[in-house]
Each structure stands twice: as structure tokens, then as C-alpha cells.
Amino acid sequence: MSMYDEADARAVLDKVVKLSKADECTATLEGSVKGNARFALNNISTSGIVSDTVLAVRSAYGKRLGTATTNAYDDASLERVVRRAEELAELAPENPEFMPALEKQVYKPSPTFNASVAGITPEYRAKVATDSIAPCRAGKMVAAGFLADGQSFVAIANSKGNFGYQQATSLDYTCTVRTDDERGSGWVGRNVNDAGQLDAAAEVRIAMGKAGRSVDAKALEPGKYTVILEPEAAAGLISFMMRFFDARQADEGRSFLSKRGGGNRLGEQVFDPRVSIHTDPWDPVVPVLPWDGEGLARERMALVDKGKVANLEYSRYWAKLKDKRAMGSPGNIVMAGGTKSTDELVRGTKKGILVTRTWYIRMVDPQTVLLTGLTRDGTFYVEDGEIRYPVKNFRFNESPVIMLNNVEELGRPVRLGGGGGGGQPSRLLTIPPMKLRDFTFTSISDAV
Amino acid sequence: MDRRDFLTIGGLGIAGLVLPIHGRAVAAEELLSTLDVSLKKAIADAALEAATKAGASYCDVRVGRYLRQFVLTRENRVENVVNTESTGIGVRVIVNGTWGFAATSDLTKDGAATAAAQAAAIARANSRAQTEPVQLAKVKGVGEVAWRTPIRKNAMAVPLKDKAELLLAVNAAALKAGASFISSNMFAINEQKYFASTDGSYIDQDIHRIWVPFTVTAVDQASGRFRTRDGLSAPMGMGYEYLDGDARAKFVMPNGVVNYGNSYDMVEDAIAAAQQAREKLKAPSVKPGKYDLVLDPSHLWLTIHESVGHPLELDRVLGYEANFAGTSFATLDKLKSRFRYGSDIVTLFADRTQPHSLGAAEYDDEGVKTQRWDLVKDGILVNYQAIRDQAHIIGEEGSHGCCYADSWSSVQFQRMANVSLAPGAAKLGVADMIKDVENGIYIIGDGSFSIDQQRFNAQFGGQLFYEIKDGRITGMIEDVAYQIRTPEFWNSCAAVCDPGDYRFGGSFFDGKGQPSQSSAVSHGSSTTRFNGVNVINTARKLG
Q: Going by fewer Cβ within 10 Å, which terminus of chain A is more open, N or C?
């Protein structure tokens, strides 16, 4: 059994806390059932299901910490894991930044579980694959894709009486479609709450359309262009930047949010006034657990408000040192936008480049969050509101900080998920399509 | 997961509650034990027998015990210590010409037999949709054999206290030498892998690897600038002896920078890193343009990895990785047409037999003896990296021995062998190479890296950049990144130093596949010169 209900999870954690002889004890029980189906060259290549459960016990003596884990839950195994954590704590050096176990938290549940995803069957996965493959075969195209679904639970408890339990589900679909002569490539990705929201047969048409339209791409000179970034294209850059909203890094002088002479840029106007970004575990589109990896309760928190840095993330230790209140580390990023779709942004563009997707994004200079990466799977020249022709992929060297100062227009945000790899976001996001001026392309790629 | 993501996760520590990889945590003494070989053979035989009974024409069994220890520190404190163990059985079969795989953590004969039956059932079910039966290259059984990474000190046997003290001493030395911050980590891995197959092989291997990365940061609060310098060590297929700091393994470069071969002085490097990070704060910014690049092995390994190792993986070439890692520009027609990959002094070879390399083993994860073979010979594309069910596609009779799984619970598949640039035949040292360069940049250490999905267009940064003018190194410069188109870059290769300068770099956590698996791979080279490469300036100003 890898999915425990609340009563069973509580029973295990209660036993663990009772067994503890340390000054403090925190225990986390997590379990999941994850399914996947992979296809390539218009055939299902692999599929599988993996179940796993793990109990982690953290014991503290004074400022010394030890952690041990197990996947066996009989009384003897529970006793063994608790003793092992305690032994490790006794051997560990004192941690000068030790923080005591959390006081009792209030966790307001968030809608992270959807029964339709938990009920996904091998047949559903096979159908997603065949629905993706069949139209490609018929259209002389080649599909390669991946469906990953999962249900999970997390339960947390400690010797100060804190307890939390919640279930979650996830469903992520990606498909790359290439023309059979290898001259065109398109992509589609969907991360949804409800299994009924994924219609692979319809989604694959988007990738097929992009593949067909990207054949015979023309080379444009690299340089600064007005771009329309589809949400997926923008997400990789923006989520990268959001990793650096850490107060400690900023205060230590090693972040783009550090202030010359010391301190951080909290409250300063760093972005265009149309840029607002917040986090909210109860967001109905991208709900996430109401606590972070440490068990600290998450809250709705503005990160960027009308272009000003509204909040930074404080760890419990750094918050104590700086006399701030620590809030749970964000589990999602919600960026505000307008009402227009990507197509509508294209229609309002005199001259520009439409980017489907960005790829292999890496940090070049953390001082300015200068990132490099490439466009992929559908890059098009736009003129007078219409896509005129496909263009060869570009390498960009651009900072999302600069990019979000060059906003022309933001469209309607959409949900995006993790798991894509190659620089894709690792947190749930809503990101709008965006039209930006002076986006820096530094070279051309011949890759299709 | 790539190595940077790994460090991000590992470095967070999340109060010690989130393990960076799967596996159960174990006490340090358990890192020294091994499973009894006769037990492993009995388990394997049970699986082989059950698979054969279930109609399998081929079966292999991997009984694996994967041990990992991570020590994570910053400045004056140990942030996290994690010991993990993961043990289980993976069974792969062919039924009706189709692969099936199942895995279990039940280390009994019954558990193995059940997994074998499940794998056969999956294969049979999948065979209904199979369009082309698996063609498996022949392998002759080797009977009962054993191999161990030739280590002198098992890292798992070194007390945790010693490791923590070393890292804290490294941190203290860097801070004393001018670093504002430092994080340093130690990763030790031991894979105890038992392989058996219906070919008649019973292969017991004990594989060890170690990696000790650090990052020093120097901050100039007045100007608001900060710069980092990573350690110049390489992850190695070695034991704790790598950290002995043997002076004979030092490579002192013409500008005084110290590089390391098969032995590493971590404290010395941390002191140098602190001083160099300070120097970087004041170094002038590069003028963009074409430069001749002199690339140290501590840097070039990553360029080889991305622009040669990955594009010559046959599964990528064929399209199996199209949705994730990507495909390859080096298509099969280019093999037939003897595509010119590089200049005629470029020979790039794959080799899992190299001592001290991350990929070193006697056999791969499908029982094939490891070997050396050329990928690019005298500039011409001559081969790919292929495993048993791919060899026929490129007209090879046997596998190259580069099949790997990162766990007993993962299916083995084609992974990159150690791919290296052959050193130059003529005597040539780094100082002599630099003497001939009029307008160049000397790059040491790996930095930022990004490459497209077909491995054409890549951009690389580094750790240390030095301007070369009229044959002399004039001083440090900053904000350097170079952009390449793979074939042009390798065709611009103008000189390769001799074997005396040959060293490894490598990737400890190279990701591939969906679900993603990580592998470790080394890349050797001597210092190499490339002419007329496009260099950009990466400095930007924020408002």
C-alpha cells in the first residue's frame, strides 16, 4: 500500500512521535503511485507504474540534528528508524543555524486532489499515446511524447503537536511532432487538474500544425526583436528568475536583488508597472500543498506588485536574524496578465517573432540573471498581425529582469506545470503570453 | 536531473527531510557490507528459470545494491549528511521478440521469479503492438567473474568526521583567503551490481565513484558586484585516495593556475579559488569578436560531452529521445557519407576501460565487455554508441558495451560511454601552444552550457578566462562566453597538446530518458586550440 488515508498516516506518525526520546522529533510520511507512458517513432516505447512510500524522521538534541528514513512500517521498523535518527543526531556537529521544530500550524486545505486523475488506468495512458500517434501516422508525421500521472499524499507531524495531511494528483502531457522528412517540428504540452481536461487527439493537432508550418524556415539575422512569447516560452525564463527571490542571497550581496552598499531591493521598482506576481496555495487554477518542505504554512504572498518587489522569501533562520516573519516557501507562481490570447497578441503585432517554446535555459551571469537558451518547435516571423513564415531557431542571451522591463503587452495567463525537462519550470505556474520589445537573439541554430 | 538541479535540491537541505534521491537512509557501517555472491546467484537463477518457463527467449537479471553518501557544507557548518541504500532486482526479458521489464525490492528467489513472470507478461502483452522484433546482438557467456574499481581507499570506510573536517577546513581556508562565501560538498557512490543472463554470464561488479565540488563567492558590496569560482576537481571513478593531494598529479599552467590529474588538493584549490574570485571582480570585460581559444581539459570535457558525446548516441540519432533530450544532427546518412566532423587532427573515441574514469567497468549492464572504439577518426565520423538491440542498425556485429541503468528498478538503456579527444601525437606543451596564439583566450574550468536539441548550436562559459596577445598571457578577463556550430567548431581545431597534459573532466549526474535516469561519464583531453571562435560579452546592466 503506498496511499495512506489520514487516519492511517496519523497512526504511523503518532507512533513515531511517541517513540522519540530526543528533545524534538518531526516525522513526514509521503507516498505516491506514479504512472507513465512514453512513445517515440509513432510507437509506444515504455510504460510503467511505480509505487513508493517513505517515512522520514528528524530528531534533535539541542542544536544537533539527525535524519533517518524507512519504508517499513511494522512496530520494530518504526522503533529502529527513530533510534537511528537519534543516534545520528547524537553524532552530528551542532548546527549554528538550528531552528527548533515548528509550533502547531494552521493548514487550510487546498484543492490539490482530483479523483479523475487518481483513477487513471493503463488503458487511459495507452489511449493518450494512440490518440497522439494515429493522426501523426496519417499525416506523415512522427510523434514522440510522454504522459506522466500520479497521486500522492503527504503527512507531517512533530512532537509539538503539529499535524497535516493532504492528498494531491498530477497529470502532465508533452508531445513533440516532427515531419517525416525531418524538416519541421512542433510541440504541445498540457498540465491539467482533471483527466477530462486532456484531449490528446485535439492537442496533438496543435503540435502537428506547428510542425507543418515550420518546414522551410528562413534564416533571419540575430539581433534585437519584438517577440511574442507563448506562455511555455516565457515560463522557463520567469521561473528561473523566481528562484532568486531569496532574502538571504540578496542580503549577502549575491543576487540581482542585492542593493549596492548592502541590503536588498525590497520595495523598489525593478520591473514594468504591469508586472505583478504572487504565490497562493489556494489558487483555483494552480493549487499546491498549504505547507512547504519544512512544514511551514504557506500564505498568499505578493512577490512583485505593479513592478515593485513586494516580498522576498525568508527562511526561518534568516527571518529570525532579520526580525521578519517567515512564511512557507512558495509552491506556485501566479503571474497576472490581460485578456488576450497568443493569437490576439499576434494579430496586434506590426513586426515580430512568435516563439512557441524555449529550451536548455542556463544561467550565464547571476549578477543580472542573464540566461541563455534556444527557441524550438515553431518559431515564426509575424508582420501586420499575421504569421508570414517560419524562421530558423535562435539562441537568446536575455535577462528576464530586462525582459520584464520591455513589456509591450501581457495576454491571458494559462496553467503550466513542471516535469518538462530542459529548463522547464519545476513549480506550478500561471504565465501569460507576452509581447516584449528588444529581446536579444545572439545567433541562429540550424536545429529543427 | 542535471547536476546543477541536483545541487540545488541537495543544497536546500529542507531541514534534512527531503532526500535528494530515492533510497532508504542507512547507518554508516551499512555502507561497508556487501551481499553474498551465492545468494545473488541463487536469486538470479530463480529469475532466469522463471523467465524461461514463461516463454522468454532471453532474460537478464540485475541484483543491485546502490549506496550513496552525501556531505553538504557551507562556511562553518555541515548542512546535511545523507547515507542511502537501495537494493532490489530488475528483470528484463524478450518474449515474442518484445522487451518486458519488472523490478522488485523483494530479495528472495520467489520475489525474483515473480518479477520475471511479470516481465514476461508485460512483454507478451506489448508484443501485440510490436511492429519489428528485437534483434539482439550475440554475446558469449563468461561464466562467474568479478571486477572492482581499483580503489586504494574506500570512501565509505572513511569516518564521516574526517569528511566533515576536510570540507570545513576547505571552507575556512577559502574564507581566510578572501572568499565571502563558500559551499562545498562530497558525494561518494558505490554500485554493487550483479548481472546474470541466459547467455551464461554471472558478473559481480563493485563500482566506486567520488566527487567533491565547491563554489566560492566573492562579493564587493561597494560596487554591488559578485563573482564565483567553482573548484577545478573532476568527479572520478576512484576512492578516497583522490583527495590525497599528491603533488605529482598537479599541473601548473603557464599563468600559474594549478590544475589536477588523478589526485586533488582541495584546500589548495579553495585558496586559489578565493583569490581568483576576488581577481574576477576587477577583471576587464572581454571585447566581443573572433578569438583563437585555448581550452583546458577542465573546460573542454563539457564541450566534448555536449557536442560529441550526446549527438553520437544512437537512440538520439534514431529519434527515441525526440520529446526530451532531442535528436541529432549526426544522422545515419552522415555515417555512410563519411561526414567530416572535425579537422584531421581530431580523433574522438569512446572508452569504458579507462582507469579512474567515471564510466570504468569490466562489463556493461547487459553483460557486454567494455571496450574502446573510435567515433570520429582523423576528423571523419566513423561510428556511434550502440547497445545490443541497436548494433544491427549500423551494421555492427556486437554491442559497444555502453548500456546502463541508474538503479535496479530502472530499465537499462544506451548511455554515453567516456568520450574523449585523443591527445596529439607530436610533443606539444601548453606553453608552446600559447606561444603561437596572436589573439586568443585561455579558458579553464567549466561554466554555463546550453545546446540545441540537435546539438548544432552551443554556448559555453567557463571559470577562468585569460587574454592571450602575441603569444603571451596578459591577464584575466571576464564576461566571456563562446558560441559554436558543432561541425565548424571541431573543424577549427588547430592543435592538441601531447599525452603529458591529458586529464579527465566529467559529469556525475548526466540526465537522459523519461522517466529520467542519471549516469556518470568522464571525458579526457589535453589542452586544445580552436581558431576563430565567436566570443560574446555577457555583461548586462540592470536599471
A: N
